[in-house]
Structures are given as structure tokens and as C-alpha cells.
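Q: Joint fold for the lines below.
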Amino acid sequence: SQQGEEDPQALSIQEGENATMNCSYKTSINNLQWYRQNSGRGLVHLILIRSNEREKHSGRLRVTLDTSKKSSSLLITASRAADTASYFCATDRGYQKVTFGIGTKLQVIP
Amino acid sequence: SQTIHQWPATLVQPVGSPLSLECTVEGTSNPNLYWYRQAAGRGLQLLFYSVGIGQISSEVPQNLSASRPQDRQFILSSKKLLLSDSGFYLCAWSVEGHTEAFFGQGTRLTVV
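A: Joint structure:
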């Protein structure tokens, strides 16, 4: 079963706007990761946040984690057309089991 | 630097035919290896993972099998493909103790 569920499933914004995607999960985790997938390609790791962290930044990316609500958000600031892709959260429950959500399809309109 | 190779990129196979997808990793030793399947518009489903040569764990019962004949080689196989085996198959690796995964470019399998 899918551990993570991203919300919204699709998002369309204008270039320059911020994009926020959310992820909810059901069981305890060791860490949570966000990945990006361009259409028909493999996934690329963006950022990992550990269960004892609440916020993490990487360039234009900002990730938050609320373990009490079992949720995470990914914020992409000042979006660009090249940010158009699907974004997945993945939760690590240990024992090499990383479970992916169904993803948010982001379209950034130039 | 580490690289992962997955081939072929696309494959069209008739129902009942065998399957062999290969994945190799370069530049690292004793990686954890994974096979995922992604159905259209869906997330990734973990099929198999391996922490060492000959050590395969299966996540879901299905028509597929996996083998790891060498440290950096992971093979996904089927003796007889079903229509439901169609999908996008992704190989990935990670370092023991770290869960950041590095993905291959995927194989789009269409069973006809």
C-alpha cells in the first residue's frame, strides 16, 4: 500500500509564483524524502528531512515536517518553467523499505 | 562517481513471453538495490530489494522474480508475461545506512 499521499495531485501555476505540495503518511518514519520525476524518466532525489527535524532548505526548496500530524510540505519558491515535473514524497520506515506516494504533477506556465 | 545503467529503455513483448531487465551500478560497492514499478499516473510500488549478492526480498507476490548474480547487477525476470505486467520499471540503488535512492532512467514495458 502507498504510505505517502501527495496533495494536490495536480497543480498549475504561473512562472514566478510559489508552488506548495503536501504529503501525508500513516505510520512512524525515520525520515521523509522528496523526489522529482520528469516525464518518462527516473526519479531524482531533492531533499531528505529526518524525523527529528522540522524544516530544511535547499536552494529554492523548503521542506517542513510535522510528525504529530504525519505530514510534510514542499515549497518551491519563484518557480520556473523547468520546474515542471511530478514530485513525490517517500517515507523510510526502516529495513530498506522506502515507500512512495502517488505524486503531485506540477505545471509551471511561462 | 557513481552511475546506474538500466536497459532497455522501451520494450514491447507479447503475452506469455519471457522478460529480463538488467540494471548495473558503477562506482560503489555493496549497494542496496531496488526494483520499482510505476503504473500510469501512480506512485512507485516496491517490487524487490536486495542488500547483497543472492539476497532478494520480495514485497508483493506476482509474476516477477529478481536475482543479484553479482554485487552491482540486479535483474528482473519473468517466465511468462501477463498484460498486467505492463508499466514503467525503475531500478535504484542506495548506500547501506542511507535511504537516499539513485534511480536509473527506467524501462517502459508494454505487454501486448
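Q: Anything notable?
A: Chain B touches chain A at residues 6, 32, 34, 36, 41-44, 46, 49, 51, 57, 59, 88, 90, 92, 94, 99-106, 108 (CB under 8 Å). Chain B has a mean pLDDT of 91.
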